[in-house]
Structures are given as C-alpha cells and as structure tokens.
Amino acid sequence: MHRALCWLLAAFLALAAPAAFAADQGAADLAPLVRGLGAGSYADTEKALSALAGTGDPAAVPVIEALQAGDLHVRKADGAVVVAKRAGSGFALTDPLTGAALGEADRNAVEKIRINNALRRTISATLGALTLMSPDANTRRQAAEAVFKSRDANALDALNTALAKETDERVRRAMTQARAAVLLAGDAADADKVAAVAVLQERGDQDALALLNGAANSVSNGGSDAVKDAAKKAVASVEQRLALWGAAQNLWYGLSLGSVLLLAAIGLAVTFGVMGVINMAHGEMVMIGAYATFLVQEAFRQWAPGLFDFSILVALPVAFLVSGAVGVAIERSVIRWLYGRPLETLLATWGLSLALQQAVRSIFGPTNREVGAPSWMSGAFELGGLTITYGRLWIVVFAFLVFGALLVALRKTWFGLSIRAVTQNRSMANAMGIRTARVDALTFGLGSGIAGLAGVALSQIDNVSPNLGQGYIIDSFMVVVFGGVGNLWGTLVGALALGGVNKFLEPYAGAVLGKILVLIFIILFIQRRPRGLFALKGRAVEA
Amino acid sequence: MLTRFFLMGLDKKAGVLLTVLAVLAVAVPFMALGTAPDSPWHLSTHTVALLGKYLCFALLALSLDLVWGYVGILSLGHAAFFTLGGYAMGMYLMRQIGSRGVYGNADLPDFMVFLNWTELPWYWHGFDHFWFAAVMVMVVPGLLAFAFGWFAFRSRVTGVYLSIITQALTFALMLAFFRNDMGFGGNNGLTDFKEILGFDIQAASTRVGLFVATVVALAIGYVLASAVVASKLGKVLIAVRDAESRVRFMGYETDRYKLFAWTLSACMAGVAGALYVPQVGIINPSEFSPASSIEAVIWVAVGGRGTLAGPVLGAVLVNFGKSYFTAALPELWLFALGGLFVLVTLFLPKGILGLAAQLRQRLPSRGAVAGTPAGQKGV
Amino acid sequence: MSAEDTLLYLDGVSVSFDGFRALNSLSLVIEPGEMRAIIGPNGAGKTTMMDVITGKTRPDTGTILFEGRTDLTSLREPAIANLGIGRKFQRPTVFEMHTVWDNLELSLKAPRRPLKTLTYSATKEDRARIEEILDITRLSPRRDRPAGSLSHGEKQWLEIGMLLAQDPKLLLVDEPVAGMTDAETEQTAHLLKDIAGKHSVIVVEHDMVFVRELGVKVTVLHEGSVLAEGSLDSVSANKQVIDVYLGR
Question: Which keywords are on file for this protein (chain C) (predicted)?
C-alpha cells in the first residue's frame, strides 16, 4: 500500500517535472521548432535539430531522444509532431514536449520521421550539447566529454552558454576542453586556436594528442603556421608526458606482477632458504589455498550470501591453516627422512605434487572453479594517467603485509628464534632444549601456510584449476635463486626486480619472449653470482 | 687398442643386458614380420613402436644416469636435449614430405605456407639430407650442452642451483618453441611425416627397422657409457661426484671433466630423441616441459642410479606401467607415479639394482647356511 | 731475502669475509726442502692461509709467489696443484667409493686432461710406484677395499699416501694427527720427516707433542698475521705467544 503510493508519486513527478519546466521556459518557444522536425526532408529535420540545440533548453532532450529511438511521428491530419507508441493495433500518442496524452490513432494516421546516418550523428551531438544544461553535474560532464569526442561545431553555442553558467570546477574543465576541441577542429581564429592548443596540452591524454597531431599536420582546414607551431610544441610535450605515464603504468604492472611473484615465492623462501628443502609441491600448496577460498565462498553463497564481501577475509585463515596442515603432514611423513639430501627432497616433493594435483582433479574436476571478487576488490580508479584496479592494488598491499608479518615473525618471536637456531646449528639447538623435530614441522607448515595465503590472492586473478600451482613453481624458484637463498630481503628484491623487468620487456618483446629473456637472464646471472643477489659470503657457506 | 677400450667396461650385468638386446633385435623383427597376424606370437606394428619408444626412453635414462649417477649433476633439463634431437630428426622428416603436404608446396612445410612465409629459414637448410640431420641430432644438443655447461661449471654452479637452472633452460626452450615465428611449427610441432630414407614411415617393415636401429643405438650407448665409466676418466667423474674440491686440489680441472660427461650425455639424449620422433610420428614443444625431464629422473632412480643397467631397466618398467595405467586406470596414474617418486626416494635410494646388490651382499653371510637363494627374500 | 730463492713467498696477504679480517697482512717465507710447523689459536687464519695458497680463496691484497716467479693469486686450484702444491685436509677426504688402489692411481703424477685419462692405462712404473706407497703407508693389505671402509687413522695415512703419489714440491698438511692414537701420531711424525727430505712441508697442528716431535721451525699465527717465529722453545718462551695461546 505504502509502496504503491510512492510509485504513484514518483510517476507523477516524472511526468510533471519536464512539463512544468517547459511551461516555465515557455513551451511555445520550442513548439514551432519541434514541429519543424517533421517538415519533410532530412535537411529540414537537421535544420530544426540545430535550432533546437541552439536554444540550449534541456526540455528539448526528450524530444530528440524520441527522435533517436524512432518514436517521433507526424500526425497526418494536422502535421503535428507527436510521440507514438504501439498500443494494440494502433498507436498511443503523446505530446513530445509536455508528455500530455493525445489519444490514440490508427496506424495509417501517423508517419514516422525517418533519420539517416548523418542525422543520427547530429542527433548524438545535439543531445550532447543539450545535456550540458542538465541539473546533474555528472551528466553535464559526460555531455562535455561527448562533445569533446564528436567535436561538433553545432554544439559550440550550447557549450558557450553552459560554460557561462557552470560553477562546478571539474565540469568547467571538461567543457573548456570540449570547447577547445571544437575550436581546434573548426574554423576559429588563430588566437582562439592557440588558446585551444594550450588547453588540450594541459589535458594531455591520448585523445588530446590525436587532436593536437591533427592540428600540427593539417593542411586542409587552413591552419596557420602559428597554430601549427603551437600544436607541434604541444604534441612534443604531451608525448613526453604520456611516455612518463606509460613508464609509470609499466612500473605499476611490474609492481603488481612482482607482488604476485613475491607471494608465490615467499613461502618457498622459508622452506628452501631457511630449511634447505626443495619443495616442488609448493605450487600445490598455493593451489590448495585457492581451492580453500573457493570452498569458503561456496559456504558463504549457501548460507550467508549477504556477507559475501567478507568471504575473502574468512578464506585467509582457512587457507593458511589448510595448506599449513598439509605442509606439516608432508614434513612429518616424507621430508623429515630426507634432511641434508636436497635433491631427494626435490624428487619426493615432485611426486607429492603430482599426487596432490590428481587428488584435487578427482575431487573438484579438471575444470576451472569460479572464485568471485568481493565488491571492495572490483572496479578501478584513475590516478593521473594511471588506471589501477582495486584487485591488483589489494594484492600488492597484501603481499607486502605478508612479507612484513613474516619478517617480524622470524625476527621477533620465539618461534622465529628457534627456526634460526635450528637452521644454524641443529645439534646445539637440540642440546638447548629446542624440539628440533617440532620446529622443522612448524617451519615447513609456515612456508606452506604462506603459500596458502598466496592461493587466496591468486584465486582473484588466475583460474582456480588443479594446474594453478604449476604455473608459479618455476617462477618462484627463479625469484628465490635470483634473490639469494636464506635472505627474505633478497626474495623481496628478486620478486620485484623480475616482475619489473618482465613488464618492461613485454611492450618491446611480447609476453612470451619477455619471459624467455628473463629466464636466460637468470641463467646467466647465476653464472656471475652462483648464490644469488644477496648471498652470504665467507667460509660458513662453503662448509 | 680401441677394442680393448670398449671392452674393458663390460661386466656381467652388461653381458645380460646386451644379450637381451640382441635377442630383441632378432625376435621382434621375426615376430612382427614373419608370423601370421592371428598367431599368438605376432607383434602388431603398434606394439613394435611402443617397444621402440621404451628403448628410446631407456637411452635417455642412460644418458641422464651418466651425469646424475656418475657425476652427481641432477639435470632437470634433459628433455631439452632429447627434444632438440627429436626436432632435428623431425625437420628432416618434414623435408621428406615434399609436395605431399596439404598445400602441396614442394619448397615449404605446410605450417610455413600457413604462416604466409615465402622462404625457408636459413636454419632449415641442409635438413633435406639425412646425413646432415643425423649429425645435427648430436651436434645441436651437444653444442647447447657445451655452452651451458661451460658457463655453469666454470662458475661452479652446483647441486640444487644447477638443477633449477637446467629446469629454467628447458622451460625457456619450451616457451620459445611454442612461438610460431621460431619456425618450428609452434604449438603443433612437426608431424604428418611420410617417409624416412625413402621408406614409408607407416609400413610395418620400416617400424621394425626403426626398432632395430633403436636397439643398436641403445647397445652402442651402453657400451660407450660402460667404457667411459670404467676408464680412469670415469673414476675421476665418480671422485668429482663424491668430493669435487678434493679432486681440484689434486690438479684435475673438474669443470672439463663435468663438461665432457655433460656434453656426451646430451648427445646421447639427442640420439634418443631422434629415434623417438619417427616412431611416435610427432614432436611438439610440450616434450620440452620440465615435467618430462623430472619423469626421466625417476626412471633412473627406480632402476638404480650409478649402475647403467638400472636406468635402462627403470625406463622400461616405469613406461610399461604408464602404458598400462593410462589405458586401464587413467585416474590412478598420477597417484602411482607420484607415489613411486616418494617411495623410491624414501625406501629405495639405490633403486632396484642397488637393492638386489644389497641383498646379494647380505644373504650369503646370513642366508647361505639356510640355503636361501639370493634375491628371493624381500624382493 | 730475495723472493727468487724461496719456494713459497707470501707478502702482505690480506683476506676479509664480510668485514672479518681472516688474514691481516700476512708474510711468510718457506725455503726449498724446509719443513715448517704453523700453530695458532682457533680463528688465527691457519686454514684461510692454506685456502689462499691453494687457490680456494682469492686474497684481497698481497703477493704470493711459488718458486720465486709464479704468481699464485691469479691461478685456479687445479693449476696450482699441477705446479706442485699438494694439500691434505683437516678432515680426511678420500674417495670413499673407490678402492685404496684407485685412490692412489687417481693421485699419481700423470697427465690430468680428460682425453688423456679416458685412454689411460697404468704402466709398469705406475704400478710399482703405487705398490711402494702402499708399503710406506702400510695399506698393502687394504688395497682392494673401498676407502670408505678404512679406519680414521688409515684414511689419514691414505691421504698422506695420495699426496706422496702426487709428488708435490710443497705439501700443506692440516692437522694430520687429529684423532690419532699416540703410536699413530709418532709414526706420522716419522713419515712426515721422511717426506721432508725431498719435499717442503707446511704442517698446521694443535698437538704440541707432535710439533715437538717434528723438531722444526715454528710460526705462530694470531689474528691473521705472524706473531712469532723460531724454534719451538724460543716461541714457547715468547711472552705474547704465552698470552694468546700457550697460556690458555
């Protein structure tokens, strides 16, 4: 009952508002112009359209929209322009300006106002110009952008009118740029054009660059040398700025890839670097983390769809514990018999990775599982010339948080102290009452748990399939080896450097060749520094 | 002199193995060609090709054992040498197709026509000739191994690090060969072969001929490896495996010894790959995958590293198991293979032959009185 | 003294690891045929000194000349070994999978290039020499046993035998009697003294009884440089030496 009333009210307002507005402005001013739309030829329609645009009156917008949609008809009886919508066998007619009902008409009593492609373009431009007067700032800005793209000279008057009234700074800027685009493309005076060049230079994106390039090289529209010179200078400056932003974008992509590598490799740095265990099943720990995320999300979808945005936060501890538990189980059952024989651990854990992949394939099927993104990880925002997606941003933040947490855990906690003690002198640690077996198991569990955390993050950007881990294992090893074993900072630098180099090579060499080059680089680098970037030196290492 | 060199490495195990190979070289042709198709003794062309494939893998395992078992270099990239040898042979076979391809272009292989190439790339020249391909089968993997090893051994990259960069090597090659503009057929690789040395590659007699060639190659590889291992050079290699720095202080340039074994091993792997391609009828970049290299490692481990006969046995057994499992219980194959990795490293560090040797050593002292024949208990 | 007449000449050799100075401007001269004992507390730089001479570690600064002319600092281990410098490690490192005979055959002075070893077969003289060394080191009964099955003392002796087979001009011997019984220690001392006639020897030892047994010139290392040099009696009386080493 209550809701129905609201609807009624809304409907009434929707109908009444333009009518009232029109009445206020004097619908009589527009009416002849609207009637002109139905005058006959395309040229007549276009003329009337320009006139409508020239009024700058938003009341004309619904009329033109109806024209665009093909709803505008001429009533044969009196030549009036009406909106006709199909109703039963005939049409229901309404007044295009006031929206008042004008009864029904037979199908033959009205004739559709036809539009061609040229007209269609004019219509969009006109609509763009007219919505410049919309009460909503966002709509106005979009309209200004539309004019910027269309560069329709017809919109210039409307643009000038709108600019005079505009108070919102952002909209003003958009309109100024649109005006500059129109001026530069049209037959404006040189001084205006030079000013326009300055405005476009300040805008400085690809679109502006295209316009400026056009102006700098044009012969057809008789641009003078002064304009051309200004445009050429502007092109140079914009290109330089774009190159900088391009580099910044690459840097961001590199950082983003680097943090993914960091996440994947950091657990490996613990098991390989601290314990000297080559865990080829590390990728599968990541994969298990991703599947844990999937299961947590399924549970949320089932029982608490409203809280879906929190599913990732719940998945983090779950994935850590699940992967960590699998890691502890692996250490207790297999790895502990193989300490001091790194090549054997490599083979055994490779076998485990095969079995784990097949197990997941048997349980969940070989196809990709869908893991959703919470709303706070979807979308993107612009930062200057950069486009940054929230998903990637969170992964970067998350990678550094995990890194920091691990660093603190290893340096400041008793557990970390035990790990380092066991690493440096096992028998001494044993003699001092540290239960080395337990420390081994927990260290391996820690490395695996971190891999699980990586799995949560990777589930957001990669396909969750039984092969997920395989894609990361070689890269992770490269990072750890490149950074230097036994040094978490090396892993950080290694991940970011390899991510960065990869993304900087990609534009020139392509993704695959870039990756090959990185691999070759690492192979050569290892020759120079067999123990990585941040290797420990001295006798202790060789012993 | 040379005969003595080749014979000095042969022990009892070698005798058994070479006898088995000789029997295979006689019996398989007879059973495939000389028996009626419905005879219980008849071997189908498919089976002959399958046996040939096992023996190619055996040669690969043998080459891997030469570096892992005797020098201690765990290569996770031997698939690279195997596959390069395979590609060299594949290129020859592609050139033999001539104008019988889908596009009927006598100058260019089909995939190049498809890519709108107009000219044969320079590195395809010469592969029209069998002798050239046969040389390249060893030279290409050998050169790559030499260059890689020269850098890696000089810089004293050892152990796990070496394993990881060999893996990076084969991974990089895989990515490279997946690219169409490398000129090796991209994803699809090289296939649809028609003839080898003028013989129809599908014919039963050709298949038998390829099988016999594989047997001979394996036998030569085995004798060569035995001779190397038994020589003083072989003793140096084992010494390098067990205490490399000590060997250096004795005045041996260990880098060169490792390089010798490494390059020889790569050439052998290349030959194995070259024999593999005509028998399976295709070579594509997925053969480069690090996973196939690691699988070869397990053949060696199962049979017994550092025994030469072990890897041959291991490669045949594991691949026979693979054929059986993937046909009968495909779901279980990876569990079986994964379990094999774990069990062998945990309980059979010396492989089947190592276990047999241990039992033989132990039983006479304890079991001789009871008269237990060696090898019956606990196998 | 000019460098030309010396067998080994170290001058101002320094090495540091991550800021720790293992050798601090060390200077040392060994004459042909001389036997020298080096003593010093743990961390004095004894092993690092051996590493530097044999090419395992590159010195940061300093000169190392062999036979007065060959600069050792730019050579790799095998090249230095082939010049005639042999080294015995603190922990006995023999090739455990090889037989005693094979261990000696590998050490025997012979071409070291891969293609030469591939086609090598022992000559009559080679076999005689190995027999001789087996006698000296009393390992004849063990000749066909894997070296891994020898006792600790036997391994030490085998390693000395391997050095003899190598026939170097200079032997570096690191703690040859660690873990030996008194009788074995005495025999080892005799063995080394026999060797010293034809070869120069540098012995690093902790065991003072053994050093006294050798009865040779002693160099005391401390914090990477020479603290004192002379007969055992004279350095034993040195106040500084007593402070840093003997007094403890």
Answer: ATP-binding, Nucleotide-binding, Transport
State whether residue A524 sits within 8 Å of chain B by CB.
yes
CA distance A536 to chain C (A): 8
Q: Which structural domain range is residue B69 located in? A: 2-348
Closest-CA distance of chain A to residue B186, Å: 13
Flag if B157 and A526 touch (Cβ within 8 Å).
yes
Query: How many CA atoms lie within 13 Å of B68's alpha carbon, on the beta-carbon side?
Result: 32
How far apart, in whole angstroms, are the C-alpha atoms of residue B168 and residue B157? Answer: 14
Which CATH number covers residue B269? 1.10.3470
pLDDT tens, residue by residue, C116-147? 888 888 889 999 999 999 998 889 999 999 99
Which chain C residues have a beta carbon less than 8 Å from that of B236? 106, 114, 117
Q: Is C48 close to A538, i.e. CB distance below 8 A?
A: no
Q: Counting one residue from A and one from B, how many pairs have CB atoms under 8 Å apart?
A: 117
> How close, in Å, is residue C190 to chain B by CA atoms?
24
Question: Where exactly are the structural domains of chain C?
Answer: 3-246
Cβ-nearest to A334 among B154, B160, B342:
B342
In this structure, the strands spanning C35-39 and C200-204 are parallel
Q: What is the pLDDT of residues B135-166, one digit of tens each?
A: 999 999 999 999 999 999 988 888 888 998 99
Cβ(A292)–Cβ(A486) under 8 Å? no
pLDDT for B53-74, tens place per residue? 999 999 999 999 999 999 999 9
Domains of chain A by residue range = 246-542
pLDDT, position B83: 97
Structure tokens at C173: 């011997």
CA C109/CA C105 separation, integer angstroms: 9
* CB-closest option in B233, B242, B251 to C95: B242
**Between chains, do C48 and A539 touch, taking CB under 8 Å as contact?**
yes
Interface predicted TM-score (ipTM): 0.89
Distance, in Å, from the CA atom of B175 to the CA atom of A471, rounded to the nearest integer, reads 13
Is C112 in contact with B257 (Cβ distance < 8 A)? no
A partners (3+ CB pairs within 8 A) are B, C
Q: How far apart are the first and last CA of chain B?
A: 41
In whole angstroms, what is the distance from residue C138 CA to residue C132 CA? 10
- Inspect the interface and report whether the beta carbons of C95 and B250 lie closer than 8 Å: no
- Phi–psi pair at A388, nearest 5 degrees: -125, 125
Q: Which candidate, A203, A205, A225, places its Cα nearest to that of A216?
A: A225
Domain-located, residue B379: no
C interface residues, A as partner, C-beta within 8 Å: 17-18, 20, 22, 47-48
Q: Which fold has domain C3-246?
A: Rossmann fold (3.40.50)
pLDDT over threshold 70, residue B304: yes
Mean pLDDT of all residues in B114-126: 91
- The residue assigned the tokens 């006898």 is B19
Cα–Cα distance, C196 to C200 (Å, whole number): 6
Res. B377: pLDDT tops 50: no
Residue at B378 is within a domain: no
Closest approach of C150 to chain B, Cα-based (Å): 16
Provide the token pair at A1.
């009952």
How many CB atoms lie under 10 A from the CB of residue A228? 17
In a domain, B194, yes or no: yes
For residue B227, what is the nearest residue in chain C, using CA coordinates?
Answer: C118
Chain B residue numbers touching C120 (CB-CB < 8 A) = 231-233
Q: How far is B287 from chain A (nearest CA, A)?
A: 16
Quickly name the fold that domain A246-542 has: ABC transporter involved in vitamin B12 uptake, BtuC (1.10.3470)
Q: Taking chain A (543 residues) in consecutive chunks of 10 residues, what is each chunk's mean pLDDT?
A: 53 47 52 77 80 74 80 81 80 81 80 80 74 78 80 75 80 84 78 81 80 71 71 84 86 90 90 82 94 93 88 93 96 89 89 94 89 84 81 92 92 87 81 86 93 92 89 88 83 91 84 87 84 59 35
Structural domain tally of chain B?
1
Closest-approach residue (CA) in chain C for B3: C119
